[in-house]
Design a protein that fits this description.
It is an enzyme of class 6 (ligase). It contains 17 helices and 20 strands. With 452 residues, the chain is α/β, with parallel strands linked by helices.
């Protein structure tokens, strides 16, 4: 990509001074642009230190129009809403707004493996990175997990990037192209940010294949009806590489007779499914996608098998925290939508005390109703406003508690748990009512469990 140059761009303003924004600022400064950073909140000291090191001007706790609206380009951090007034004024002045990923893509020739989906993208991206790193690739894990792509490009450009992409990052991408695009699934999520129209959210997810050609690869879950419908509508000119649990016509990665199988140009790869340390059907799908990427990039069979045998689950994703008095405590704080919780409940084989709640994003809890009725002995609603949870679940589970802190949630769970139960934090909601983020929520869960 080479259509971003100093003939039409001299001043770049970055909105947001988190990981993404600071990375974009450093890359912009190194490329010789007049660079300014603005954050409506207080900037972390570590990020201020980086900005100071490179002599980048910034402001915090405000957005000054005189400093922002004279930009030739705006790089917006993905967490910033499109509805704030400064964004509206940028649009009125036709100032182009792009994402940090889009900007960084102009300054690297690396091969890009891009992963998105409503659920499973962090696990899949981390697994792909782990496999490629073990196989000796010059690779970095960036995007919605790991470092910002811009910072990595600015400091040490790699030959390969595994990039986890949220819908918000995809919204700000226009010319960026994935060499390998992985789309795991599309289910209802973030509808509060998409005018409560699921098609708007679907359109964002499908942007992962924009700009791809026949020489690029699109790996996707063939059983996802939404993806299948969008493919029929878009008719993209890409090389398709679908995966499924079962062998089907046209599917390239699947399971058969207890083995994971991937069809490649160089023959068939086969590995016992029991090698997968990640359990649950959702992790089987993640593993199939990761295996397809690895084999398409030429990873040797023995290296791939070693990676699966040794890979550890990521923090806050079905993370077993403790076994206390015959009760398992599992931290699945990263389950910020209903579909993610569905797969976890589906994989459980014990009675469950489920902790859920937070900021509702337009959730439809009917997806987990059957599993909750079947498997949950009790529900603990953890949030500032639990009214929507009560509206749906009251009368469907005998025991329901309301709490406004993680400490209370664990106290109640410990009190009612019986030997053989699982206390599961799988909230279905975002965390910003009581916690800084899902990591903070998960860490508090672990803290209070370990204090029992």
């Amino acid at each position: 990509m080479n259509d971003f140059n100093k003939k039409n761009v001299s001043r770049i303003v970055i909105l947001g001074a988190g990981e993404s924004g600071v990375g974009a600022a450093v890359l912009a400064k190194k490329q010789g642009f007049d660079t300014f950073v603005s954050d409506i909140s207080e900037i972390k000291k570590s990020h201020k230190d980086i900005l100071g090191k490179y002599g980048i001007l910034y402001e915090e706790k405000r957005h000054s129009e005189e400093q922002i609206l004279n930009a030739d380009r705006i790089i917006k951090s993905p967490g910033i809403s499109n509805k704030i007034s400064i964004i509206e004024k940028m649009k009125e002045r036709n100032i182009p707004i792009i994402s940090e990923i889009e900007f960084a893509g102009y300054y690297t020739k690396a091969k890009t493996i891009c992963i998105t989906g409503s659920n499973g993208k962090t696990t899949t991206a981390t697994l792909i990175y782990y496999i490629l790193k073990y196989a000796g690739f010059d690779v970095a894990l960036v995007g919605n997990v790991g470092k910002s792509l811009a910072m990595q490009v600015a400091e040490k450009d790699c030959n390969y990037y595994v990039i986890e992409l949220s819908s918000f990052q995809l919204d700000g991408m226009y010319h960026f192209k994935a060499d390998i695009a992985v789309l795991l699934n599309i289910t209802s999520d973030h509808l509060d940010c998409y005018e409560y129209e699921i098609q708007n959210y679907i359109n964002s997810k499908m942007r992962i294949i924009q700009n791809q050609t026949k020489n690029d690869i699109f790996i996707y879950w063939s059983d996802d009806l939404v993806i299948a419908r969008e493919i029929q509508k878009m008719k993209p000119t890409v090389t398709f590489y679908p995966f499924s649990e079962q062998k089907q016509v046209g599917v390239k990665a699947y399971t058969e007779n207890g083995n994971i199988k991937v069809e490649t140009a160089n023959g068939m790869f086969s590995m016992p499914q029991k090698y997968l340390v990640l359990r649950g059907k959702h992790n089987l799908y993640n593993s199939l996608a990761a295996t397809a990427v690895a084999k398409l990039l030429g990873v040797k069979d023995e290296m791939l098998e070693h990676s699966f045998l040794n890979f550890k689950a990521i923090e806050h994703r079905m993370e077993k925290v403790a076994h206390i008095k015959g009760v398992d405590y599992i931290n699945d704080s990263k389950a910020t939508n209903v579909n993610s919780c569905f797969y976890v409940l589906q994989s459980m084989r014990t009675p469950i005390i489920l902790i859920l709640g937070g900021v509702d994003k337009g959730n439809d809890y009917s997806e987990i109703e059957g599993l909750v009725r079947e498997k949950c002995r009790a529900l603990i609603f953890l949030g500032v406003d639990n009214s929507k949870l009560h509206d749906f679940f009251d009368g469907k589970v005998n025991v329901i508690y309301d709490v406004d802190s993680m400490k209370k949630a664990i106290q109640y769970a410990y009190k009612i748990a019986q030997e053989g139960d699982t206390v599961l934090l799988s909230p279905c909601c975002s965390s910003f009512d009581l916690f800084q983020n899902y990591e903070d929520r998960g860490k508090q869960f672990k803290k209070y469990v370990c204090n029992l």
